[in-house]
Amino acid sequence: MTESWNSTDPGVLRLPSGRLVRGRGLRHPLPDGPTPTYGVYLVGRPPSEVPWESRWLRWPDFRLPSDREEARRAFRTAWERAAEERVELACGGGRGRTGTALACLAVLDGVPADGAVEFVRRHYDRHAVETPWQKRYVRRFTG
Questions:
Q1: Distance between CA atoms of 89 and 135, rounded to whole angstroms?
Q2: pLDDT at 68
Q3: Is the pLDDT at 1 greater than 60, yes or no?
Q4: What percent of the chain is modeled with pLDDT above 70?
Q5: N or C: which end of the chain has fewer CB within 10 A?
């Protein structure tokens, strides 16, 4: 088992099961402390290389994932790995796409889909999940 995130570190979201997942914006410097063991990068173009295992999910800014089935698989894998690894999800700013993905992980963790956006806004970033279609995506997400 890998050392987990510190629950008080910036961007770290504690899911109801106790799993810790970090969200962040790729336009910001990498936070101090441990690095991820696995990352899911939610951007429109292939992201820069990182020295840890990662997955690119094609997701243009202010939109939804280009392949929703691939997104479902990526979220499930991230949620499963977060039980024993340092997992991060990141987009450009760390709010819209990242917040949407974190809300989907919350659904996988047992938060009702109609309350997942509020959960992420309360525990991660009050501006998370930026567009009406991102909110609708989370409400309809079934994992």
A1: 17
A2: 96
A3: no
A4: 99
A5: N
Quote the distance between the C-alpha of residue 25 and its chain's center: 11
Sheet holding 87-91: strands in order across?
12-14, 20-25, 87-91, 38-43, 53-58
Q: Is the pLDDT of residue 119 over 90?
A: yes
93 pLDDT tier (thresholds 50, 70, 90): very high
